[in-house]
Amino acid sequence: MPQSVLSLPISASSQEWLIRNGYRTVADIDEERCEDGKDTTLLRIKSLLKAQPEPKRVTAWSHIQQRRSQHHFLTRLDALDTLLGGYGLRLGSIVEVLGDPGSGQAQLCLQLCMAVQLSTLSHGTGMRAVYVDCVGSFSATAAEKICQGTLDKISVFRVYAAHELMAFLMSFDNVCSRMDGRVGLLIINTVSWPFLASFSDDLLRRQALQAAAASLISQIASKRNITVVLVSQAKATSVLSTSTASSDGGSGRNAAARWPASMDGDVWSRISTHRIALRRVAGSSPQTAPLRGCYGVALCGSSEYPISMEYVTIDC
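Request: output the structure for the sequence above.
Response:
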């Protein structure tokens, strides 16, 4: 699959110049012969691509040691923290949150924004949260109610199209450098919408850009040692045999539960260390306060905890 120029680690203005001049993929740039008198912009972009560093080699032991040295922060939702091994979310991890509309994705994201600020990992002062709103679902009223007066440490960015999200991810280091305090959480809600809005009829280009975005997100989580939460859109569900538990009773019963699948396939789950599926409890409504939701957590690709699929009832 051709690599889009929008996935290249260059500035947004350089990407725009390439597209405006007919360079859609990396192959178009490679095939272009740079002769004397050619545009200096193209020569500069080529030199930047050649100067990209080679992949860094690490041993399996150093990788394990790095994982063990990373800290966690509690979500402040007891049942969810229990499913996550009792430690909450690990800094440097990537979490995919999916569920049907109205099942509480935005509320959970705001809860995590508050939880990361209550953490004492950053010299006892808590950490900042960055919230990227792709669908216009961020509610300042709900944030004030859930985050309890800590709104000054939540930075909200509104993006509409795929190229805007890609530009934000590539400039994330600059975004963090302009903030006071350490950033511990990045939330993108809903990560699939900018790509659907920009390439609704071009599946191949959409998948190529999503793969490039997934690569950038992995680099951000690893390089800056922050937790990244990706809210993705759910589609038709598949039936899984799970255990249903209650936060107050603790007794579960075997039941066939429906586990939602992402509209984007497995592009986000491939880079995720945890997947959180949300399901609303029967009889509740979006106007219910506090929201009572049913949360299922599947821990995948984690060396710290065994794979688990379980539904618990919690208050969010």
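The first strand starts at residue 72 and ends at 73.
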